[in-house]
Amino acid sequence: MIELPSASTGPATLIVVGGHSSGVGKTSVVEHILRSRRRREPWAAVKISAHRHATADDSPPLVEETVSPSLLTQTGRYLEAGACRAFLCRTPDARLADTATFLRGLLAEGTSVIVESNRIARLVLPNILLFIVSPSVADWKPSSGPCLTRADALVTGERAATVPGVVAARGARLDGRPVFEMDADRYVRGLDAWLDGRLAEPRGPHALA
């Protein structure tokens, strides 16, 4: 494992946002967190995608930095929401460790990082791991399993009361983990106060494989 410096030696928060399918609200949750925390510290936002074209699976990750806010792309939306930098990492599974090293570099600069990805949850120990659940969406990506198992809290755009049954159907339990509801305006009620409390707790160094 690669040790990342702890908060006492410089770098800041690492948050990972995953979800069981496309369109369940992962980007909206990232935007919510950026809007609520952008005045407290600088944030870099990273989208990790598996989509690469005409390249070998073991080819290096392709990192693209988005420089202009836009509502037309996920990374553009990050900038609109208050990220100081936004990146798209097109990363095949064989090179996820390289993307983890890229995240390490951002954190070492003292910039907090929020990552939208399921697959990176296999390699990182973030301060907070959130998992987005939409009970009405039947599709569950294989990569969602580690996120669901390790998530600190869940978020849904539907009724929170419907989430435990869906989680149980995937062979998991909430075990006291909170479920936050996101409303039609993409505001996640109760999440900000919960994050404040969790991030105020003492923590050791992050770890990246």
Provide tags for this entry.
single chain; 209 residues; alpha/beta; Rossmann fold; 8-stranded mixed β-sheet; two-stranded antiparallel sheet; 22% strand
Topology diagram in text:
Blueprint: E1 2-3, E2 14-19, H1 26-37, E3 43-49, E4 62-66, H2 74-81, E5 85-90, H3 96-108, E6 112-116, E7 128-133, H4 144-150, E8 153-156, H5 163-169, E9 179-181, H6 191-199, E10 207-208
Parallel strand pairs: 2-6, 2-7, 3-5, 3-6, 7-8, 8-9
Antiparallel strand pairs: 1-10, 4-5
Helix pairs in contact: 1-2
Largest sheet, strands/sense/barrel: 8 strands, mixed
Mean pLDDT: 87
Helicity range of the residues? 25-40%
Task: Just give the CATH class.
Answer: Alpha Beta
Shape: globular
Low-confidence stretches: 1-11
How would you spell out the order of helices and strands? EEHEEHEHEEHEHEHE
CATH-defined superfamily = P-loop containing nucleotide triphosphate hydrolases
CATH architectural type: 3-Layer(aba) Sandwich
Model description:
With 209 residues, this protein is of the alpha/beta class. It has one domain: 3-Layer(aba) Sandwich (Rossmann fold), CATH 3.40.50. The protein has six helices and ten strands; from the N terminus they run E-E-H-E-E-H-E-H-E-E-H-E-H-E-H-E. The protein has helices at residues 26-37, 74-81, 96-108, 144-150, 163-169, 191-199; strands spanning 2-3, 14-19, 43-49, 62-66, 85-90, 112-116, 128-133, 153-156, 179-181, 207-208. The strands form two sheets. An eight-stranded mixed beta sheet has the order 4-5-3-6-2-7-8-9, with helices on both faces. Helix 5 (163-169) links the parallel strand 8 and strand 9. The longest helix has 13 residues, at 96-108. The radius of gyration is 16 Å and the shape is globular. The protein starts with a strand and ends with a strand. Residues 1-11 have low confidence and may be disordered.
